[in-house]
Fold:
Amino acid sequence: MSCENSVKGSVLPGEPQGSLVNGAYFHAAATPAADREPKRAIVLLTDMFGLPLKNCKILADLISEKVGVDVWVPDLFDGRPALTLEELGPLLPDRAGAKRSLMDYVRLFFLLITHIFALRRTRPSVGEARARVFIEKLRTEKGYNRIGAVGYGYGGTVGVGLGGSPSLVDTLVIAHPGSLKMENVKLMKVPTSWACAEEGAAFKPAQRNGAEAIFKEREGKDDFVPYEFKDWKGCAHGFAIRPNQSVPEVKAGYEGALAQTVEWFKKTLF
Structure:
């Protein structure tokens, strides 16, 4: 597969059906909550490509339709993601076991070096701070009683940070997160579903197993929260938001992770 086709293969089909509201993408629930019902919403935390890549908007539409709640996608990068899919996408594996040449690694190294200041400017702690402000405003200005969040890649790292604040988010889905500190996982206090790639660029098996052990160790204790870890065979980092659907296992992983997300929110957000 050529580099150009690899990028095309990771763009979801269709066009967003929602709208931009004060710089954030919004897809309204088909049926608004009744006056006396709790008002619920889901916040989608994007991967490092942010709002310019339409995949996050397509997923927001799908999740809103399937769960039946409003879905918001904040701009975690203040309009300036560090890299575009066209720049980085061809250098990323689209499936587990995909072979990369030495030249691919060299190109990746120089791409990251030349964008080092942009990457620093958009580090996850900055995105988390923006997400916190955004969600706090949703609660105070929009009146949501319960808010879930789903994070992909970069957004998964942001979501883990938010998981230590149960007054902010009530439930989480974390899909193939970026680099994590186990100290932050230990601080998580809300129900969390993890959608894991067979091969993660940053969330490798040792980290994945360590995170699960942290949640499992709480079983039977006062600080226990519901959790689940699902591993998607044949998938690499990015499969849940940028799947190459021409690869059967990746397509199955993308669809399975979406169903996992929907079922988790139906179970824990209501």
Q: What stands out?
A: The mean pLDDT is 95.
